[in-house]
Amino acid sequence: MKSNPSVSDWEQILDIMIREIRKQTYGKDQKIPTENEMAARFGVNRSEIRRVYKRLKELGYIYSIRGCGSFYSGKRLRVPLSLVSGISFSRKMEELGLPYRTENVEARTIQYNPNIYENIGAGPEESIWKISLLRYVNEEPVAIHTRYMRESLFPSLPENASAIQSSTQYIHEHGYPETASTDVQMAVTNISKRKRELLNMQYSQEAIVLTGKTIRPEDGLILELFTTTYRSNSFIFTL
Length: 239
Hints:
Elements: H1 7-22, H2 35-42, H3 46-58, E1 62-65, E2 69-72, E3 79-82, H4 89-96, E4 100-109, H5 114-120, E5 128-137, E6 140-150, H6 157-160, H7 167-173, E7 180-189, H8 193-199, E8 207-216, E9 221-231, E10 235-238
Parallel strand pairs: 3-10
Antiparallel strand pairs: 1-2, 4-5, 5-6, 6-9, 7-8, 8-9
């Protein structure tokens, strides 16, 4: 057995295991070999296999039951999603024929925040609503859509905010049928504990976060600020 395997060893083993998983070597919920068995198979220290299994858990390929071992989670859904299409999430899922649902997890006014207020073009006396929608595909949480909207532009927000399932649809149905996205930026980053819990993500997993503005094209009126947080291992992103 190698006493000091290089860093590349565990990464090579990870690639092999992912290839085997994708070839459906394992069935859903099937127990996979123990760390000791895999260490013997590849001739490395158990610590290397522990790193492999930790990464497979982070990627959602396996899960562990204390005292029982590790098991294959089943084939993961990888949804093709364009970051610049301007098509709403709901419409995209419908086009793909995927079962989805939305849970409105937050709908409230926020305290004055200069950064948000200035970016949305609101005065300090205005009410800004924060609306967060948790998106599920095949009953798996995959994204959080957070929107900041001005009550002065959408007077019905106090009554309707907690029932919103699509901000795009809400905006179109409340006086702004034509919209466009601008100042869109993307980052791969760690996210808050609250968001990790909602998306059922491991602590070390990074998410893809998209930020930008929705505007009225004819005059550039800012209708909302948006932040969309995606589970990166649930999507195949296109530009």
